[in-house]
From TrEMBL:
Protein source organism: Blautia stercoris
Identification of the protein by name: Exo-1,3-beta-glucanase D
Coiled-coil residue windows: none
Topological category with respect to the lipid bilayer: Single-pass type II membrane protein
Keyword vocabulary terms for this entry: Cell membrane, Cell wall biogenesis/degradation, Glycoprotein, Glycosidase, Hydrolase, Membrane, Signal-anchor, Transmembrane, Transmembrane helix
Function: Glucosidase involved in the degradation of cellulosic biomass. Active on lichenan.
Compartments in which it is found: Cell membrane
Superkingdom of origin: Bacteria
Domain (Glycoside hydrolase family) ranges: 52-298
Major site of localization recorded for this protein: membrane
PANTHER family noted in UniProt: GLUCAN 1,3-BETA-GLUCOSIDASE 2, GLUCAN ENDO-1,6-BETA-GLUCOSIDASE B
């Protein structure tokens, strides 16, 4: 089993930096606060237009032509439309399955958010809050969402697998990301009690989720779990005979390497990735390992230290003019793509983050160098090799 795929990020789970215009006229930094600042009509119109235009049938043919064989689709906990004021998006996922099956692609459904968040990131649905795992009712709610997804799509030809939960955070990553400062909570009252999840809780949740999903999904489909940013902590996990086709997902970004002190030059990036390759090969002995999120983005090609991938939205001053030539940029990206694809090959494949970006990196000051998050552009500029 080897998978080559791309994430459909910012389609059904919004990320402000990937589509800033959606948030125009509001101070909302995340999906949670967007409907609190718009009238119901305006909010619903914005979301419906975004979802109908951002990903269409045509994108599935493009993804196929890029040599990919799968898409990872982040979905929110309110996908079934039962958590007002948010709007469900199960119809969009239905369409995606029809397109995927028509054009020979597979889908990994990724439950990307949880009520009151599993990580405190903007992409966890609400910035600076991480309290989901402390509320047994919401934990149960999340399990029922997984169960309903498995029931609806478990036997679909286009289903590759279901990912239990995206990026639940533990204490070490909470501290190194400095979540509370990087993603300040809007409402200090709501943020009370916020803290990272425990490993004990996450393991228990994964085991329970496996049982619920497998009830409705045949053994040949994959159950995927995220490493909670600890790639090598899972050697004793799900060793029992009953666990079939379980995949370990690790997310590996150069911006996190930089955050952890990796020097911002090609040699150091490459040696970091080579070390990572060894860890992936080591864990591949226990589970098929996929790199479910990664990209070519790095501070060197941006032209300044992005402090772990912080944007102009985080108040980090960006450049408005390229400071390295197109040729040099292409060389750097080609070298990194080669090293990273080689590392993921020591495992069972990858999903690039992300398929597209609606940030105008040309006209909006401060976004130079951010286009490497967009796989379509990477392919068009020759930064990312296409293997057909």
């Amino acid at each position: 089993m080897k998978v080559k795929g791309v994430n459909l990020g910012n389609w059904l789970v919004l990320e402000k930096w990937m589509s800033p215009s959606l948030f125009d006229g509001t101070t909302a930094e995340d999906e949670y606060y967007l409907p609190t600042q718009l009238s119901k009509e305006v909010y619903e119109a914005k979301i419906k237009i975004h979802r109908s235009e951002y990903i269409t049938e045509r994108d599935f043919t493009r993804i196929k032509s890029m040599g990919m064989d799968a898409v990872r689709i982040p979905v929110p906990y309110f996908i079934f439309g039962d958590r007002e004021p948010f709007i469900g998006c199960i119809e969009e996922l239905d369409k995606a399955f029809n397109w995927a099956e028509k054009y020979g692609l597979q889908i990994l459904i990724d439950l990307h958010t949880a009520p009151d968040s599993q990580n405190g990131f903007d992409n966890g649905g609400i910035s600076g809050i991480c309290k989901w795992s402390q509320d047994p009712d919401e934990v149960e709610f999340e399990l029922t969402v997984l169960e309903r997804l498995a029931k609806r799509y478990g036997t679909r030809k286009g289903l590759w697998g279901i990912e239990i939960l995206n990026e639940p955070i533990l204490e070490d990553m909470w501290e190194s990301m400095n979540v509370a400062e990087r993603y300040p909570a809007v409402d200090p009252e709501k943020a009370k009690g916020t803290k990272p999840n425990t490993m004990e809780f996450i393991r228990g949740f994964y085991l329970e989720a496996y049982d619920r999903i497998r009830k409705h999904m045949p053994e040949e489909k994959y159950v995927v779990f995220h490493d909670a940013f600890r790639l090598k902590a899972w050697k004793d996990f799900m060793r029992e005979e009953k666990y079939k086709n379980v995949v370990l997902d690790t997310h590996q970004y150069l911006m996190v390497a930089e955050m952890n002190g990796c020097e911002q030059n090609v040699e150091n990036y490459v040696s970091y990735v080579e070390e990572l390759k060894k860890d992936i090969a080591e864990m591949q002995e226990y589970f098929p390992v996929i790199c479910g999120e990664w990209c070519l983005f790095n501070s060197l090609t941006v032209g300044h230290d992005t402090k772990g991938g912080q944007t102009v939205l985080n108040g980090v001053e960006g450049l408005s003019e390229e400071c390295i030539s197109a040729e040099t940029k292409k060389e750097i990206y080609n070298t990194l793509a080669k090293a990273m694809l080689d590392a993921w090959d020591a495992g069972s494949g990858y999903f690039y983050w992300s398929y597209k970006l609606l940030t105008d990196t040309v006209n909006t000051p401060g976004w130079v160098g951010w286009d490497s998050w967009d796989l379509g552009r990477c392919v068009d500029f020759g930064w990312f090799p296409i293997e057909k």
